[in-house]
Each structure stands twice: as structure tokens, then as C-alpha cells.
Amino acid sequence: MAELTGMFKNFRWVLDLLDIGLVAFIIYRIFLLIKGTRAVQMLLGLAVVLLVYIAAQVGGLYTLHWVLDNFLSSIILVIVVIFQADIRRALIHVGRNPFFADLSYREESAVIEELSKAAGVMAARRIGALIVVERETGINDFLEVGVEIDAKVSSELIHSIFLTTSPIHDGALVVQDGRLKRAGCFLPLTQDTTVSRKFGTRHRAAIGLTELVDAVAIVVSEETGKVSVVVGGRLTRDLDPPTLKRVLTRLLEPRRVTAKKR
Prior knowledge:
Number of domains: 2
Radius of gyration: 24 Å
Shape: elongated
Structural class: alpha+beta
Low-confidence stretches: 255-262
Largest sheet: 7 strands, mixed
CATH superfamily of the largest domain: DNA integrity scanning protein, DisA, N-terminal domain
Mean pLDDT: 80
Number of strands: 7
Distance between the termini: 54 Å
């Protein structure tokens, strides 16, 4: 009996370590997901509110303590409302599948090559462009108007769509399932007041859409000729074609390493 009790205690230690390890891993992954986003600032704000609540309790500030106590009593609901976009993005990451699931590795690489080439050509000619590449989350619910295309991805076609003489050059070009599906689409603009005013409608639309879904947006500035990539509401600027290709490869080809090994 004593031996069984000792074995149970040892097993309990293993379960406790596993429990602590899983919680630590989940917290670590949450920090990685929200790193560099507005969620970090909101969490800091909630931490300040919690500190004020503790100070009010210790200092005997009864009215302030009562107000904060009622606020914190429904903190779970507050967190869900404030971080709904980040929670949705986190759940998408949990169930992430490879992009271009129905395409071969060669076709995937060809699509990325054409996108990079088109962005480089348009940047050199100061042609403004906004290209959205759908990943796991469907984006049709966030698209307004648009013209059906359903064509093979080619730099020449992309370039011609964004020429100022084209009637659909103002909107976004959407890539779905490795094909050019729609053009002239209008996207939701970001509501983030911290976004610099120097960014125009294309950049704000790219940020706004990627705040809601896990799509990748490529933006070519008409004013500066610089290429940017936007993911998760975060913008990376001034990418040349080789760098853009590497970034897109990392974002859109999670199977690349496996394919190389094969």
C-alpha cells in the first residue's frame, strides 16, 4: 500500500509539471500572437486598472474600489469584446493549414514569383496597387463590389489591371486558390487611430482587412514607389523584389521545407 501511495505521489508530480508546462506554453504563444499589436497596449491598460483597484482597496478609497470592482467582475466579457479580432486570429492560427493546399510546390513558387515580379515592375513605374492573397480564412464577406476575373496569376495581367487607364485599377486585386479571382474590390479601412496619416487609402485598406482575417496584402505606393507587405495589421515597408519574394515564401509556403526534403 505504501508503495502504491509513493507511486501515486510521483505520478502526481509528473502531472503537475505537465500542467504547469502546458499553461506556460499557452501564455507564451499568446504573447507571440499579440506581440507588436494593439492588444499589448490594451493589456497594459488593463494592468494599470488592476493596480489602481488594488491601491484603492489598500488605501480605503471605497467609491473608486466599488466602481472598479463592478468593472472587473465582468472582466471576461470585457476581454472578449476588446480582443475579439485577436481571439479570432489566434483560433485561426490554431487550425492553420497550408496555403495553396490544392497546388503543387512548383505552382506555388510560380505564383509567388509572378506576384513579386509584378510588384517590382509597378514600383519602378510608380503604379499604385493593392493585392490581397487569401490564406485559410475566407475574405469574401469583407469584399465590396469587384469584377470576376478567374485568371492565371501573371505579372503582365496584374500590371495591366493597375494601369490608370484600367476601370478597375482603384480597388484591390484578390488572389484565391492560386488564381486571380476578383479585381476592383473595396476593403474595410482600419479604425486604428495610431496609423500614420501619411498612409493613403490602399495602406489603410490593407491594414483594415488583415486586422480581421489572416490574409496577406501587398501594397505598392503610387507616391513613393515602395512596396509593403501587411499581415495581421502590421506593415513592413520598402521591400525590393528579392526580399518580397522571400517574405511571401515564408508567409504563403509553409510546406517549403518539407518539399525540399522530399
